[in-house]
Amino acid sequence: MTAELRAEKLTRTFAAAGGDVHACADIDLDLHPGELVVVRGPSGAGKTTLLNLLGTLDRPTSGRLLLDGTDVTGLGDEALAALRRERFGFVFQAFGLIPVLTASENVEVPLRIAGVEPAERDARVAEALRLVGLTAQAPQRPGELSGGQQQRVGIARAIVSRPRILVADEPTGQLDSRTAATIMDLLVELAHSQGLAAIVATHDPLLVARADRVVELHDGRLTAGSRPAPGDAADAAPFAPGSALGGDADAVPHTRAEARAQRHGSGR
Ligand SMILES: Nc1ncnc2c1ncn2[C@@H]1O[C@H](COP(=O)(O)OP(=O)(O)OP(=O)(O)O)[C@@H](O)[C@H]1O
Ligand SMILES: [Mg+2]
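A: This is the predicted complex of the input protein with adenosine-5'-triphosphate.
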């Protein structure tokens, strides 16, 4: 099956005072329709850099990005922007809503930019708000909504253009853990029901267990990938490389080295 989005040896290097920073190095990754992939890793691991590259918001230093089998790495800014509008939806940690607009007007913004007719806009906005469970809140402004509701508006805005790829950088970073879990459940459900190829960055281990697949970034490199088995989320399952990621939040190792250290006792 052709990946919706494929990264091949994707590398992004920043020049910094102390020398080059390899924010992403040789990343190979496929995203498929109907699957939510979590990228996890500690602060500075390169999650945002990777999501910006995958979302065509930034260009790689080297490597390739393929959209539905087509190499888009060499496209010009305008062509890339058009592809982005058509194929991608973005969800931001800080919601990114316009305070003076109602929930439905916020969701409508991408459709106005795309020049969609008013009747079609109304229908699509209503559908997007229904999908995130906010039909009743359509006339309310962001200041009249809870944080979780605001992020639902942000998600409705991201999916209203019917994108094929959803990119979310720490979408629950400003939410309490219970609300964060419901938002993560919504993203997983939308990926499945709408056939979206979704990629979500988070360093919250409790959210990781909800993903269809988990990839781990460390110092710009993918160090491990694992698929949690259904029902593993809250169980204290031991970690073994290549098996399900489970266990309580603090016990989940971030690298194979940590996993080894845990198995052998960390007092070595
Ligand atoms: N524009 C930039 N210029 C220079 N260095 C950068 C730039 N953007 C990111 N970096 C560096 O690249 C590395 C990865 O940063 P990135 O923001 O991708 O990490 P992150 O995993 O998203 O972290 P966090 O969890 O804190 O959001 C860091 O060392 C960071 O300082
Ligand atoms: Mg980040």
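Residues 228-268 have pLDDT under 50 and may be disordered. The chain is about 35% helix and 25% strand.
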